[in-house]
Amino acid sequence: MKGENSSPNRLIHEKSPYLLQHAYNPVDWYPWGEEAFKRAQEQERPIFLSIGYSTCHWCHVMEKESFEDKEVALLLNKWFVCVKVDREERPDLDSLYMTVCQAMTGRGGWPLTIVMTPDKKPFFAGTYIPKDSRFSQAGLLEILPRIHELWIGRKEDLVETAETVIQSIAASEVLQGEDLHSSILESGYSALADLFDDECGGFSTAPKFPMAHHVLFLLRYWNRTQKKRALFMVEKTLQSMRRGGIYDHVGFGIHRYAADMNWLVPHFEKMLYDQALTSMAYIEAYQATQNPLYKKTAEEICEYVLRDMKGPEGGFYSAQDADSEGREGKFYTWNEAEIDQVDHAELIKIIFDIRKEGNFPQSQGQNILHMGAPVSEYAGRLKTSPRELQDILEHARRQLLEMRTQRAPPGIDDKRLTDWNGLMVASLSKGGQVFGNEEYTKAAEKAVTFLLETNMKDESVLYHRFRDSEAAIPGFLDDYAFLAWGLLELYEATFTPGYLRNAVLVTDSMIKRFWDTSGGGFYFTEDGTSAMTRRKISYDGSYPSGNSVAVLNLLRLARMTGDHTYEKRAAQTMKAFGHVIRHLPSSHTMFLVGYDFALGPSAEVVIAGSPGDQDTQEMIHALRRIYVPNKVVLLRSGRDDLLDEICPFAKDLVQIQGKATAYVCHDFQCNLPTTSSDEVAYQLRELSAHSSRCNKN
Fold it and tell me: Structural domains in the chain?
C-alpha cells in the first residue's frame, strides 16, 4: 500500500503480501538474498532484519509507527542494510532467528527484530520495538544510535557476542539418541494434566492457543487407557473454545489464540493451519464421542474455509488479517445498538453477554460474542427447548452475518503454502470420511490437483509458495510431510490409487532431500538453503513438527505398502529425538501420536469389493463411524495394476462369493476374512478393547 513515500523500494518486485505491504516504506528494504549480504559486506554495515507476516497486528503497528516514519528510516538507511522476511515464506529463517531471540531475551514473538553481522550472525534481538522510548522500554530512536556506536567502536565485542550466541544454539541442538519406552505415553499425559486448566480448559493460563495436536494425542491416550480424565481434558477444551470469543460465532472459523485464560479476547487473525488442525480435532472428538456439537463445529470451520479461504483454482489462502479499517477486531465486535437490530435481541444479549459498556477490557462499548454456558443450560434457564433456542440463535446469526457483510472485511493473505494446504487437505478428507460429505472430499481433491500441478516439479520436487501465477521457494520438510499426510487421508477418503502413489513419491523425495544419514531424523531444509546451519526440529509449535508428521506417515505407509524400510526410518527418527521427547513430552505430542501407532495394536484392513456396490459402501461406512485411529484401510476393486504395484501384498485378497470382503490384520497376524460389516466393526473394537486391557494390566 502506498504511503507518503511515493517511490517504492526493492520489495515492490516480491510476491509476498507482507513484503508488498512494506514496498512503499521510506526504509530501503531488501528481500533476503545475496544482494543485501553483498552490500553489507562491501559497506561493512550490520544487517537490520525484520521478520513478520501480513496478518500480524503488531507488525502493522510497528510499520505505521516506525517503518513509515522518515526519522527512523533515515537512521536505518544510513547505518544498516535493512532486510524484510515473510515468516510464512521462510519458516527456516523465522525458526532460526526466533530461537536466537528466545536465547538472548527469554521471549519471542512477531514482529521479530534481529541485528546481525554481514555474515548473518546475530548480536541483538527483540520483538516489537516502539519508535520512542516509553516506560522501561527503549525505542528505536534510542537503540539504533547505540548499536551504531558499538559497531563503530567495539565491533570485535559484537562479533564475539554473535559467535557465542551461534555456538550456544548449536550446542543446545546436539541430539542424544535414545529409545523410547511405552511409559512415554503416560509421561505425555501427566505433563498435559499438570498444564491443564480445569476451570476453563486449555493447557496454559494466558495466552491460550488451540493446540489441536494435544487433543489428538489425548484422544488416543484415552482410547488406549480409558482414563476418563484424558477425555475430560479434551471435551472441556473443545467446548470452552467453541463457546469462547476465540470462535467466530457469526462467520465461523477459529482465531489464532486467546489473550486471556477464559478464551474471551482473541488475537483476531485466522490462520489456515488453525482451521485445518482444529477442525480435525473436532472431527476425531465426534468420532470418539458422537457428540453432535463437535460435528457441527468441524462443519462450521470447514464452511468458513470453503467460503472465505479458497482460491478459484482450489488452493487455500494462508490467513485472514486481524485488523480492518485500522483497528484490530473491528470486523468481529459489536455494540449493543447493533445487536438490538436482530430478532429476539434481548435473548441474544443474554446468551452472548452483550453489554452497553462492552464485555472485555478496553472495549469502549464493543462486545465479543461468547457464551458462558452450553445452549442446553440456557434453554433450561429460559424455559424453552434446546432445539427451539438453537433455531433462534441460527436466525440471529444469519442476520448478524448479513449485517457484517456491510463492513470492510479484513484482508486476506492469498499466497498458497504447500504445507498448510496439505493440512487442510488432510482435515477435509477426514471430514469427508467421517461425515460422509462429498463436498469436503471434492474440495480436497481440487486442492491436491492444484498443488501437484503448480507446486510440484518432475513428480518429486515441491515448491513452498504459490502466488500471482508463480511457484517459488524450494520446499521445506513440512511441505513434503504435510502434503503426504493430506494425500494419505485423501486416499482413504476416495480410494483412488493415484493419491497413494503420490504420497509414496512425496515421501520418497522427502527422504532423499532431508534425511540425516548419520544421526537419523529429518533436517528442516535441504543442504545449502538455510541461513547458517541445517536444523532438525522436533518440537510442536502452533502446528506439529515435520518430523513428527513424517513419523506417522512412514508408519502408515509401511502398513499400506508392506515396505518396512519406512517403519525403520520412523523408528530411527523417534530414537534420534528420544532424549528431548522424554524430557519435554508436552512439546512433542504429535510424536506421541506416532509412537502410540507404533506401539500398537494397529490394524491393516483391506476391503475387496466394488466401490459402487452397496455392500462395499456399508463396509466402508462401518469402518469410518467408529474411533479406531491406529488403522490403515485399502480398497481393492477387481484388477488394479497401480494398487497392486504399490501394495503387492494385497494382490491375492479377493471377494468371497461376489460379496464385499474385509481382511483385517494386526500385530503380524490376520483374522479370517469376513463379508459382514458388523463383524469388521467388532474386530476393530475388540482391537481397541484389547489395547485398553493390556494397558491396565
Answer: 10-172 (3.40.30.10), 336-406 (no CATH), 603-696 (3.40.30)
